[in-house]
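During the second half of the funding period, the structural biology subgroup turned its attention to how the target accommodates small molecules. The most pressing case was zinc ion, which had performed well in the primary screen but for which no bound structure existed. We therefore specified the complex as follows and requested a full 3D prediction, including the ligand pose.
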Amino acid sequence: MAWAKGITRITYVPDLISTPARVNRRTGEMQLSLKHMRAMPKEHRLFVMLHEKAHVELQTTDEVKADAQAFKEYADLGYSLNASVKALTKVLSDKNPEHFWRMYAQLQRAKAYDYSHYGNTKIYQK
Ligand SMILES: [Zn+2]
């Protein structure tokens, strides 16, 4: 059977412990951690789900690529750019170099989007 091209099913489990969500790229099934989701604002939940969806649609294990795709969809829907950065900083650890890079990259995406779509020039001033 061919691998999934998108999310086919969403299930909630009580607690995924180390992550708010995960996805099976073969079947397209996304699992959400009820414990984590309950504690998150709507924007953070949305970003997490778009991130998992990107893993399936792009068929990638690359976290930065999944973040980039998720960010584009999220931002194009008009949601808060600030919340897109917090969606990562609340979940990831700045002690982990890969996590730190993901948070940094998200901040740069948010700034670039704010500048190009909303004409916010202040973010590039000192
Ligand atoms: Zn991921």
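Two results from this model are relevant to the next phase. The pocket of zinc ion is lined by residues 51, 55, 63, 66 (CB under 6 Å). The chain has a mean pLDDT of 96.
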